[in-house]
Write a structure and sequence with these properties.
With 150 residues, this protein is α/β, with parallel strands linked by helices. The protein has 3 helices and 5 strands. It has helices spanning 11-30, 81-96, 113-123, and strands at 39-46, 51-56, 62-67, 102-108, 127-133. Strands 3-2-1-4-5 form a 5-stranded mixed sheet, with helices on one face. Helix 1 runs parallel beside helix 2 (81-96) and helix 2 (81-96) packs parallel to helix 3 (113-123). The protein is flat. GO terms for molecular function: rRNA binding; structural constituent of ribosome.
């Protein structure tokens, strides 16, 4: 098709980008949850392009949410396992202030961030009562997209 252009990233650019991500994580930690929670549901949505985590109370009201894009990741870095672990770290920091003890995890999607998000949630010290996978599976629906050949 054409030549692939290889762009090398200098160390100063990498440091600037790491600082941006650290600042975004610090900003998201500053916004805290005011309500006291005993139990919550954590929804992990991992697509090919992005990973998002939403925390709701038992009624279904959204308590906190974060996406990898809101933390400063852009482009293909948004769907990486590293971005998912950073999302979990920022959500856990918000939830620690509300004395949350137990969570139910509901995972949806086929992205690469889903496993690392669940592992990171288990390492944060919450009592995990259940892990559910609600990824949609078609019963012979429309023809799927063709797979990418890179």
């Amino acid at each position: 098709m054409g030549k692939k252009k290889i762009v090398k990233q200098s160390s100063s650019d990498a440091l600037k980008q790491a600082d941006k991500i650290q600042n975004a994580v610090a900003r998201s930690k500053s916004k805290s949850v005011n309500k006291k929670l005993e139990h919550a549901k954590v929804y992990v949505s991992a697509s090919y392009n992005n990973t998002s985590i939403t925390v709701t109370n038992d009624k279904g009201d959204v308590v906190a949410w974060t996406t990898s894009g809101s933390l400063g990741f852009n482009g293909p870095k948004k769907s990486t396992p590293f971005a998912a672990s950073k999302i979990v770290a920022s959500i856990a920091e918000k939830l620690r202030k509300s004395n949350l003890r137990s969570i139910d995890i509901i995972v949806k999607g086929v992205g690469t961030g889903r496993d690392s998000a669940v592992r990171s949630l288990s390492n944060q010290g919450f009592d995990i009562l259940s892990i559910k996978d609600v990824t949609g599976i078609p019963h012979n629906g429309p023809k799927p997209k063709k797979t990418r050949r890179v």
